[in-house]
Design a protein that fits this description.
It contains five helices and eight strands; from the N terminus they run βααβαβββββαβα. The protein is of the alpha+beta class. The protein folds into two domains: 7-66, Arc Repressor Mutant, subunit A (Orthogonal Bundle); 76-134, no CATH class. A hairpin with a 4-residue loop joins β3 (76-78) and β4 (83-85). The longest helix has 14 residues, at 53-66. The mean pLDDT is 85.
């Protein structure tokens, strides 16, 4: 199971105990108790602590939404710095993935690591607003080359065929 609990596992018309929530979402019961301290509202103050399913779904969705940091046009998210940044020198490379979409790649100005951002070719001007975008050519592969490789034994075969 992933790091973030899946709110779709929760039935909204059911009430859960702390232990049931922990088992359902594969978390420790102390994690669920910490969520209650962070704002997850139980049904009442009595024991056992009961949490309504709709409240739990709402809490999990808000928690997931609050952790997101959308990137503005011209910004990319640096995983090492954990924040959106403008690329170093305002430059990025567009690496095509398919005919209609690709990935922008640039260096982080602070840590120097690569940053990536998915972008469709049609909306590249929005995602890469204000950036100098380069379209590097792919290096041709050995198989696609018309010139035989130095390791190729086709010249040896021709030499053997000439001298019986």
């Amino acid at each position: 199971m992933g790091r973030h609990p899946n709110p779709r596992l929760v039935k909204i018309h059911r009430s859960y105990t702390v232990e049931e929530v922990a088992r359902l979402l594969r978390k420790h019961k102390n994690t669920v108790r910490a969520w209650i301290k962070q704002g997850l509202r139980p049904i009442d103050g009595r024991r056992p602590t009961l949490i309504h399913g709709l409240e739990l779904v709402s809490f999990l969705q808000n928690r997931r939404r609050s952790g997101k940091q959308p990137c503005l046009p011209g910004y990319m998210y640096c995983l090492k710095c954990r924040s959106p940044k403008q690329p170093a020198a305002g430059m990025a490379d567009y690496l095509p993935i398919s005919d209609t979409s690709g990935s922008l790649r640039a260096f982080c100005p602070d840590c120097g690591k690569f940053m990536h951002r998915r972008a469709s070719l049609a909306k590249l001007n929005v995602a890469g607003a204000g950036l100098d975008i380069a379209f590097p050519q792919a290096v041709s592969r050995l198989r696609e080359s018309a010139i035989p490789s130095l390791i190729c034994d086709s010249s040896m075969k021709a030499h053997v065929d000439e001298n019986p």
